[in-house]
Design a protein that fits this description.
Helix 5 packs across helix 6 and helix 8 runs antiparallel to helix 10. The protein is built from 10 helices and 5 strands, in the order H-H-E-H-E-H-E-H-H-H-H-H-E-E-H. The radius of gyration is 19 Å and the shape is globular. The chain has a 5-stranded mixed sheet. It has 2 domains: 32 residues, no CATH class; 182 residues, Beta-carbonic Anhydrase, Chain A (3-Layer(aba) Sandwich), CATH 3.40.1050. It is α/β, with parallel strands linked by helices. Bound molecules: cobalt (II) ion. Cobalt (II) ion binds next to helix 5.
């Protein structure tokens, strides 16, 4: 059996199993999706959104790109955020980085990989902003991990500063932006404690979190 046939096989098995467990499952999802969460994560194949937090289809709206970035001019990410906030009315936006992220590592170490260097330049901007904090870390792997955390914090601020979130908060909508980092080594998520419910809070928690990193 070819690799691709195997996927169709697995799909048929999955569909049958789900249908057996819950005959209404597919018809229920067909009529509506009402996820409470938007996941913004890395494209890394080892960080599948639904599985890690035990959510079923229909329960999390997902956007992934290399190094889980929210760039202010990225129409793709912005459209996902706008749809999630304005139409789906998600209650939580989860910005989820992961330790040992290849994109972050490449950005940190100036590795040249081609076109993607331009995308990772945004991570390098974060790196340059926190040069001092990063220089304190001697171990190269730990430095990558700190950079992963700093990158998540920056993306939380970026999400919070989008016109979508500003307007949602202004009209009193209940939506919180969180910053998490997932560890490939044990499968656990670490909360970076930068959750924010308004633009001012985003700046504040960001400053505190960066101070904490320095003191660590
Ligand atoms: Co990654």
């Amino acid at each position: 059996m070819s690799d691709i046939e195997q996927l169709f096989n697995a799909n048929r098995n999955w569909s049958e199993r789900i249908h057996g467990e819950d005959p209404e499952f597919f018809s229920r999802l067909l009529n509506q999706q009402t996820p409470e969460y938007l996941w913004i994560g890395c494209s890394d194949s080892r960080v599948p959104a639904n599985q890690i937090v035990g959510l079923a289809p229909g329960e999390v709206f997902v956007h992934r790109n290399i190094a889980n970035q929210v760039v202010h001019t990225d129409l793709n990410a912005l459209s996902v955020i706008q749809y999630a906030v304005d139409v789906l009315r998600v209650k939580h936006i989860l910005v989820v980085g992961h330790y040992g992220c290849g994109g972050v590592k490449a950005a940190l170490n100036n590795n040249r990989l081609g076109l993607i260097d331009n995308w990772l330049r945004h991570v390098q901007d974060v790196r340059d902003r926190f040069q001092a904090s990063l220089a304190e870390v001697d171990d190269p792997n730990e430095r990558v991990d700190r950079m992963c955390e700093l990158n998540v914090m920056q993306q939380v601020v970026n999400v919070s500063q989008t016109s979508v979130l500003r307007e949602a908060w202004q009209r009193g909508q209940n939506v919180t932006v969180h910053g998490w980092c997932y560890a490939l080594s044990d499968g656990l998520i670490r909360d970076l404690k930068v959750s924010t419910r308004c633009v001012e809070e985003a700046q504040e928690v960001y400053r505190d979190a960066v101070d904490n990193l320095r003191r660590r």
